[in-house]
């Protein structure tokens, strides 16, 4: 019986070197003893022993930092929490996240995403700031439950790679930023709801979403960004009709 | 020196026909069946306004094999649409907090589906009662 620890697995990796390659193309690597490796470990083995020029992002190796998102056999996944033994036999295809410009190999441009995160005021804006002497902003467990899952987002962008509407319209604010928006708008200590709603009207706001819903299915943290986007369609619509009644 | 020359891969135009997006496409297309049902009902209303002969012709059409086949297909599509509609219902509403924790989305879907089923059944029973 062959030793499973010595099993060799083939990885097909989309390579792109800016300034050298006109377009990305696949490179093939055989990784020995890969049976119990995560895809990230396999990539690190390739970089250490086969091709030092292979570029990819990673940091924590335990699905917390959100750096190693990539397309594995066509699905957006974290390379660190995807194990080769769980994938169907045969070559494993690894590509950079869909819908993003490729910087180099598996590294994508994240600038657009960071701008979107910045645009939704990603911090608590209290109605009346308290001094330290006045004590903390208190919250009940029910108030925490209203937004808690949205605060679990690790900015891995798998949801963007899964979103066909983001593919069609790169300016669409997208699922991840909307989850963060809802994290703050749903927080009882926050009073910045109106400012955030003003950023999500129109085609580049929530209205590019057609409730495809795959963003929530690929989320490694069960954040359910589809819920964040779709409940804000209602909020955006109400805001549109009620804006004349509002007292500024 | 900035060496960044990002490469933008062309997005496939047929994403809607491929897994996992196919289920979404079928779900959205099943909405056309609801419009189809509406069109059949409007046709009935229109023929009613056109007099007894027109109404009789409409009833004859309803009894035809083509119409029965059409209705079977429409019913199947509408039932699928109802099922998927309630599946995404919890995605479109704020989290429902009971006590200290959010109600599971599965529970929301189940309760809403049962409620809608009960309403439909009541409507059928009332209609049958009135018709008797």
From TrEMBL, chain A:
Family stated for the protein in its record: Belongs to the succinate dehydrogenase/fumarate reductase iron-sulfur protein family.
Q: Which coenzymes or cofactors are required? A: [3Fe-4S] cluster; [4Fe-4S] cluster; [2Fe-2S] cluster
- Which InterPro entries does the entry link to? 2Fe-2S_ferredoxin-like_sf (IPR036010), 2Fe-2S_ferredoxin-type (IPR001041), 2Fe2S_fd_BS (IPR006058), 4Fe4S_Fe-S-bd (IPR017896), 4Fe4S_Fe_S_CS (IPR017900), Beta-grasp_dom_sf (IPR012675), Helical_ferredxn (IPR009051), SDH/FRD_Iron-Sulfur (IPR050573)
Q: Which residues form a coiled coil?
A: none
- Domain of life, per UniProt, equals Bacteria
Q: PANTHER family recorded for this chain?
A: SUCCINATE DEHYDROGENASE [UBIQUINONE] IRON-SULFUR SUBUNIT, MITOCHONDRIAL, SUCCINATE DEHYDROGENASE IRON-SULFUR PROTEIN
Q: What is this protein called?
A: Succinate dehydrogenase iron-sulfur subunit
* Protein species of origin: Rhodoblastus acidophilus
Cite the NCBIfam families for this sequence. dhsB (TIGR00384), PRK05950.1 (NF004616), PRK12385.1 (NF009051)
Cross-referenced PROSITE patterns: 2FE2S_FER_1 (PS00197), 2FE2S_FER_2 (PS51085), 4FE4S_FER_1 (PS00198)
Alphabetized, the UniProt keywords read: 2Fe-2S, 3Fe-4S, 4Fe-4S, Iron, Iron-sulfur, Metal-binding, Oxidoreductase, Tricarboxylic acid cycle
Instruction: State its Enzyme Commission number(s).
Output: 1.3.5.1
Ranges where the 2Fe-2S ferredoxin-type domain occurs: 9-100
Any one GO MF term held by the record is: electron transfer activity
Can you state the subunit structure given in the record? Part of an enzyme complex containing four subunits: a flavoprotein, an iron-sulfur, cytochrome b-556, and a hydrophobic anchor protein. Part of an enzyme complex containing three subunits: a flavoprotein (frdA), an iron-sulfur protein (frdB), and diheme cytochrome b (frdC).
Question: Which pathway does the UniProt entry assign to this protein?
Answer: Carbohydrate metabolism; tricarboxylic acid cycle; fumarate from succinate (bacterial route): step 1/1
Q: Name one GO biological process term.
A: respiratory electron transport chain
Upper taxonomic classification of the species? Bacteria, Pseudomonadati, Pseudomonadota, Alphaproteobacteria, Hyphomicrobiales
Q: Name one Pfam family in it.
A: Fer4_8
UniProtKB/TrEMBL annotation, chain B:
Transmembrane segment boundaries: 29-48, 68-86, 107-131
Q: Does the keyword Membrane apply?
A: yes
Query: InterPro entries in the record, alphabetically?
Result: Fumarate_red_C, SQR/QFR_C/D
What are the protein's UniProt keywords? Cell membrane, Membrane, Transmembrane, Transmembrane helix
Q: Which domain of life is it from?
A: Bacteria
Q: Please provide, in alphabetical order, the Gene Ontology terms of the cellular component aspect for this entry.
A: membrane
Q: Name one Pfam family in it.
A: Fumarate_red_C
Official protein name in the record: Fumarate reductase subunit C
From which organism does this entry originate?
Rhodoblastus acidophilus (Rhodopseudomonas acidophila)
